[in-house]
Amino acid sequence: MEGWLIFCMVMALWIIVHHIVRMHRTTQREQTRREIAAYIAEGTMTPESGERLMAAGERPEKR
Q1: Cβ neighbours of residue 50 closer than 8 Å, sequence gap 6 or more
Q2: Contact call for residues 35 and 27 (beta carbons, < 8 A)
């Protein structure tokens, strides 16, 4: 009986940590997109360069 309890606790912890990591990754990606958009808006970066930077971090199946 103890084995199942420990297993369930480990799985619950893994799920929580996994979702926290995903939220952090999404937040950072959106922050980067905002910064690139700001550089494009102020004219220090061309839209083509911004598009290349945004596409560089994507998985190939998303392009």
Answers
A1: 36, 37, 39, 40
A2: no
Helix (H) and strand (E) counts in the chain: 2, 0
Residues contacting 57, CB < 8 A, separation 6+ = 29, 32
Q: For the packed helices 2-42 and 47-56, what is the interaxial angle rounded to 10 degrees?
A: 170
Nearby residues of 55 by Cβ (< 8 Å), 6 or more positions away: 63
Q: How far apart are the first and last CA of the chain?
A: 48
> Per-residue pLDDT tens for 4-57?
999 999 999 999 999 999 999 999 999 999 999 999 999 999 999 999 998 887
